Amino acid sequence: MAPQAGSWGGSRRLLRQLRDLMQSGGHWQDRLDALVHLIADDMVAEVCSLYVMRAGEVLELFATRGLRPEAVHRTRLRVGEGIVGEVASTGRSLALQEAQHHPNFAYRPETGEEIYHSMLGVPLLRDRRVVGVLAVQNKTRRAYGEDEVEALETVAMVLAELIGGAGLIGEEEERHTESLATLPARLAGITLNEGIGMGVAMPHERGIVIKQIVAEDSGVELERLEASLAEMRGALDDMMQRDELSADGEHHEVLETYRMFAEDRGWIERLREAVRSGLTAEAAVQRVQTDMRQRMSKVRDPYIRERYADLEDLGNRLLHHLAGNDGPRDELPEDLVLVARNLGPAELLDYDLSRLRAVVLEEGSPTAHVAIVARALGIPMIGRCGELLSRVRPGDFMIVDGDNGQALLRPRQSVRQSFADAIEVRARRRAAQAATRTLPPETLDGTRITLLTNAGLLVDLPQLEDSGAEGIGLYRTEVPFMVQEAFPDVDTQAELYARVLDMAGDKPVTFRTLDIGGDKALPYWSGTPDENPVMGWRAIRIGLDRPAMLRQQLRAFLTASAGRRLRLMFPMVSEVGELVRARALFDRELERHLRQGGAEPVQIEVGVMLEVPALVWQLPALFDRVDFVSIGSNDLFQFLFASDRGNPRLARRYDVLSPPALALLRSLATQAREHGIPLSLCGEMAGHPLEAMAAVGCGIDILSMPPGSVGPVRSMVRSLKLAPLRDFLDRLTVLPDRSVREQLRIYALDHGVMI
Hints:
Elements: H1 12-23, H2 28-43, E1 47-54, E2 58-65, E3 76-78, H3 82-90, E4 94-96, E5 118-126, E6 129-138, H4 146-165, H5 171-174, E7 185-188, E8 190-193, E9 196-203, H6 218-239, H7 250-261, H8 265-276, H9 281-296, H10 302-323, E10 336-340, H11 345-348, E11 356-361, H12 369-377, E12 381-383, H13 388-391, E13 397-401, E14 406-409, H14 413-435, E15 450-455, H15 462-467, E16 472-476, H16 478-482, H17 490-504, E17 509-512, H18 540-545, H19 547-560, E18 565-570, H20 576-595, E19 603-610, H21 619-623, E20 628-632, H22 633-640, H23 659-675, E21 679-682, H24 689-697, E22 702-705, H25 707-718, H26 722-732, H27 741-750
Parallel strand pairs: 9-10, 10-11, 11-12, 15-16, 15-22, 16-17, 17-18, 18-19, 19-20, 20-21, 21-22
Antiparallel strand pairs: 1-2, 1-6, 2-3, 4-5, 5-6, 7-14, 8-12, 9-13, 13-14
């Protein structure tokens, strides 16, 4: 029978022994040798080995109990080599009943480990960097329990701090991941908020050094924890009263939800348990954060990952309250570019917003809470920027191009100047566009183009008037559902939609029914993750499978638009039959609404968002059943090219300004015109002047875009003569080229079109 560690998970005695041993006198090697013996005895393991990271990403065996002594300082493994190397490369623990059957097992004859079967390896993490690996082995086939894994991880955390603080890991080893740090680099990501910002890079981490790991008195540490939790909650309440943040809009709901996380019972209880196990309050926070990061690495659901990010943000804030340095951040550069693995919404607000030029995240998503707040504040932001923290150093100059989802690291002076000029030109253009916002978006040869805005937050609504747009072509209704802890009832939804209509005044608003699923999960919605979520169970598919949910939203639309105009569209329709079923639900709700004495909307228009290519071959039947169609360019073209638009490696592989994409738009516009159906274009394509020029040339005369894009697109339209562009596109759509972007750009420059 395999040996068991029993209640080893809470061994305060072992933690104290480790601390006392590392702080005692004598040679370091003697202390490390004694240390692995202590752990092996407590874990009931025949082997305990400590590997330390050396320069060049090599793990060196520093001490062992059970392996051959001559292997110490002689056995070395590259990161990624062997089971120990895999633990180091992934930063995650690995428990194996039969280690030698693992594909990464690397045999080292000098160690004599061939007689051992089971193995548990955990990383030593310091400042989120792997500085070593701690491993135990057994001769028998042993299934290491979750408590044992967590306990060894706690010991590894203590060891990482003790070894690092003792200077065992020198400066050369601390810099082993750095290479060619002075060369320019381009980091690809995705756009979380458009705009351009440039300045000095500053890592978000404030580097709290935990000086004491093991508690002298757990009761005192629990009191410190509770006091700091209360202090943090008060500081968050004060933050939410800041002048920059209006009390209206979903960004305020996001911050209120974030504040609720500070009351999360499960999180607080885990902190208390870690203190009771013998850690100081600071070490307990760090231990719970490490555990959450490991859990997060296994989670695909974006909302749950964002919730983990908020809890990690709270953990960082709590550490600063424990350390007594929770005040404002000092010594910020005048032009600051903030870089971080992830951010919570309140953590962003810790910075002086008058100096913050842009934010770059290694993770992040468009629906993350911090992205919602950044959009409300107009801060350029990109996310999913791989290897960000390993490549950016404090003081590096960075340019953040939110429009194209990229960051330029340590750019040459000529590149800096080019972007500085671009920022200045944008500022002048914005001023000129503001002066012409009341002028009609009409081409030089008399074709009127309708410019609408996209919205999804109440904070977007004031920009409708400022931009001079003629209405809202797409109101995304899912954001309020995603920031609440429970599904909003009909009255709550109706109140929100009524406020949207009130703020829009006499301008039309097109509400899109819930587009949840895919990368937009609800926190209170449980289900099996899809292998390919963007093409999985989402949008109208969920609405038809869960008709009660869709009917509640349709009921809210009817209540909010009583006596007013109602425009709604269904997303992700793949076949006309789905529209027929959705329309039948709407008709039932309309009948119910009128039967109960509700006022009828003065006008009802129902449409679909064309995102699935299959619908292109059903257009005649579709046009007979809708009042309008809106092209969702983001999804339509990623499905058309089978190209994940969220994958930075594919971001520039396919182009919406390619002959097949433009030919498709022309065909859609021609067929819609023949049937008398208004056709609009939503998505990123509509908001960029060059792409919008091509769409107009293809025959699309209604464009819906972010509010900030309305001015540039209006200027493009007013400088464009449409007839020659259409002739030019006749030649482009039959070319075999991958993209005709450059040809269109040259055409615009030659013909004086403002792009």
